[in-house]
Amino acid sequence: MRNCTVFFLLFNFLFNSCKEENDDVLQQVDEQGVLVSTPFLWKTSLHQKEPISNSHISNKIIYNEKIVIPLTNGKENRTISLINTKDGKIIWQWNDLYEEEYIDINFHYQYQNLLTYQIGSRSYCINLDNGESKWKIRRDRSFDVRLNPYGQYFFMIGPDLNNGEYESNTYLAFKTDILSGEISDIMTGNFTFEHPDCRRGISHIVEIAEQENLLLVSYAENLPDWITQNYLGIYDTNLKEWIWDKVLVREPMNPNFIYHPPLIVNKKIYTAIVNTIVCNDLETGKQLWRKDFNADFMFSGIIVEEGKVIANCEDTYAYALDAETGSQRWRVRTAGSGSRMSYLNGVVYFVGGSARRLFAIEAATGKMLWKIDAGLLGEGRGAGFRTNAVYVLPAKDDQPAKVIALSDLYAYCFEAER
Q: Smallest Cα–Cα separation from 145: which of 93, 83, 187, 103?
């Protein structure tokens, strides 16, 4: 009986400690009625001892309603960890690295229970069920961090080793099996080679839904003085030929890069290229519309939701464009250097890097709903959210819809807007 009493008292103490911690956080709004503080469902420390420099995951990784986030384990090591979204508890931690390194996952590929990412010459694949390495490989050259999904396979972008010479000017796509990490094929862009001393390469390969044999390919060639021309093309993997190609995304210029993969929605291609958003017809490649801005979209990329192209620009505004015409539907002041955007139930969530706030914007109208300040959650002045991925999970069973974002110290879970 005494043991039961001790257990009850301990449980009651722990429960009330967590409750009191969260009860200290009040729901507050600013003078415009925008939410700047709200109680959270749970929070999890990102550090087991003293904080050290966090690693970074740009795109959300969700597996069986659990999420992958970066942590530190108290030994000057950085880890990738799977978190239970019901209570914030750590399920496993992984740091089976070739060398002590900052984990920076800007792009990844997730296939069934496997997660793979690339950094330099090092390729890693993690079993998401148990947090163990499926495989890891040191390759004979460095590859770009951008991975391009292709069913059981993915494409890595890397230099062609021309007669054994490293750092060739031509960058190809290497088809790789996610089950083994083995490279089985090489794909090249339809380059002109008009300026052989200039750099050229594939930038993105995008699967076309319901047409497994067709791939959308973006590739680029440099002209003298680093002037770059970017092309789009559709490649048939069965026929080994181009359906259409060499469609200029915009006129050659410098800078002129496509950082994020183009999006395919309703037989249209949407591409963010530096400070321009372009829409092309999927079947013909014909440009349908183009919209230019005063700054770029390198950090946020674009999403297409509710018939709108939505993006957070480095000019510190978020924009929504009509997906059919490119006309501006709304604009709202936010912050620059933001995270990638997540959409759930009519609301767009992201972290504005320069403001270090967690933003929530109504997709239909551009109405600002949240500008959550981590300093008002108990972390004090100067605290803020990081531009790590912002995770959104729909309501399920007895669990409400959730938004999870990371500050320098904690992962916070909030109930999403309804």
A: 103
34: buried, middle or exposed (CB in 10 Å: 19+, 13-18, 0-12)? middle
CA distances from 409 to 54, 72, 360, 406 (A): 9, 10, 21, 8
Strands (E), 9-77: 28-29, 35-37, 42-45, 56-57, 62-63, 66-72
Consecutive H or E run containing 83? strand 78-84
pLDDT top residue among 342 and 192? 342
**Cis-peptide, bond into residue 196, ω within 30° of zero:** no
Separation CA 387–CA 314 (nearest Å): 14
Angstrom distance (rounded) from CA 404 to CA 391: 5
Residue type, 119: I
List, for residues 52-106, the tens digit of each pLDDT value: 776 899 999 999 999 999 998 876 678 999 999 999 999 999 999 998 788 999 9
How does residue 22 score in pLDDT terms, banded at 50, 70 and 90? low
With residue 192 as reference, give the H or E element that holds it: none
Q: How far apart are CA 101 and CA 85, in angstroms?
A: 27
| The pair of three-digit structure tokens given for residue 132, joined into one six-digit string | 């163990």
What DSSP assignment string belongs to 246-270?
EEESS--BSS----SPPEEETTEEE
Cα pseudo-dihedral 329, 333, 338, 343, rounded to 10: -40
Containing 14, the helix (H) or strand (E) segment is: helix 2-23
Q: Evaluate whether 158 touches 169 at the Cβ level (below 8 Å).
A: no
CA separation for the pair 341, 231 (Å, rounded): 26
Averaged pLDDT score across all residues of the chain: 92
Please check whether residue 267 is in contact with residue 234, taking contact to mean a CB–CB distance below 8 angstroms: no
Q: 374: closest CA among 15, 63, 67, 43?
A: 43
Pair of tokens at residue 394: 């729909």
Instruction: Report the distance separating Cα 218 and Cα 272, nearest Å.
Output: 12
Which 8-state DSSP code applies to residue 416?
A: P
Q: Does the pLDDT value for residue 50 go beyond 80?
A: no
Residue 412's nearest CA partner among 23, 85, 80 is 85
Q: For residues 359 and 52, which has the higher predicted lDDT (pLDDT)?
A: 359
